[in-house]
Amino acid sequence: MPRSKKRIGLVGYGGYGRFLVESWKGLPGAEVVALAGRDIDRVRQTALELGVPKSYRGYEKLLADPEIEVVVIASPPATHAEIAVAAAEAGKHLFCEKPLATTLEDGERIRRAVDHAGVSFCMGFVLRYNPLFRCLKQVVCEGLLGELHRVDFTNFAGDENLPPDHWFWRLDQSGGILVEHGVHFFDIYTWLSGSPASSVTGHRTVRAGTPQEDRVLATVEHRNGMLATYYHAFDKPSRLERTSCLLGFDQGYLRVDGWIALAVEVDAVVNATQWRRLSELLPPPEQEDAATPVPADQRKARGGGRDYELDWVLRYRHALSEDKQTIYRQCVRDALTDLLQSIDNPNHTITADLASGLESLRIATAV
Q1: Are 27 and 91 within 8 A, CB to CB?
Q2: Ramachandran category for residue 113: left, alpha or beta (phi over 0 → left; psi -120 to 50 → alpha)
Q3: pTM (predicted TM-score)
Q4: Residue range 207-211: average pLDDT?
Q5: Per the CB 3.0–4.6 Å rule, which of 100, 169, 254, 319 could disulfide with 357?
Q6: What's the CA gap between 210 and 225, in Å, rounded?
Q7: Three-state DSSP class for 7?
Q8: What Cα–Cα distance (Å) separates residue 327 from each residue in 164, 263, 323, 334?
């Protein structure tokens, strides 16, 4: 039996809120029927441009609308806890843009409210819905390159659109770079590893003559022994933005580029069974000589106290066929679909659940 459309109210009318509404248009089972924000003129104008029928000044009026079943929080981070708790108490299901909150205490308040109300909750961790990361998750889970023991993540971001008075620079509003932005990457690589963090350390620099924390570094040790470092710098012209991550395994390396990852470079040594499965998950380009046989007298190898029988040397680049914007839109569509499935089926497990929001926030606030 087809699912009736869930009526959605979105709090926040900025660029990301607009992106969500546009991406969800035509999605079976969902309809955005209301926008809310502090500036009612801007809310009304945005709603008119997006074809959303209702506009509210402030989230309270949106929560009081009995027609709305799902609330999407796309407002600045410091407002998330207040809105999420009130929405849960009003019996609304929740989709929350990252971060869950700016403090771990507020994150726990949200958890308690959601648990008490029994509503469904999905974090906006869109990277978990990226088809490339889903394949990488299988690589890790199946041990196709041995164990994942190293994550080396670097993000050079632009600050051209972040003037000194922007809320992004205010720790009381954003939580800082590692909370506002870093949680995406704490989450995705913790998810890949399958192991929670056991200890966290960090460093930061403050731009001379300002209170702006613009470069941060976090080192995370996981319970399974994986070591991860995360460097974020919001100090570049936008055209110089770069995001990359090197994943170190027992038997090789995977390099992922872009924050909406579209390709991965494979550099590894594997046996025949591993290569067959890898070629299914991360197929090389056609007509490319991706695998070179290991000479018979060199197939026995040893590393990290382990013995290996290796048949192939792999060097190739696997890329998704769609462009960044297409992948990004599909990720947010899949995330909302995940939430809708949970509303209809209480036994459904949400891929980016509230616990993932809490764990990433725990790492970010521990630095």
Answers
A1: no
A2: alpha
A3: 0.95
A4: 91
A5: 100
A6: 38
A7: strand
A8: 32, 12, 6, 10
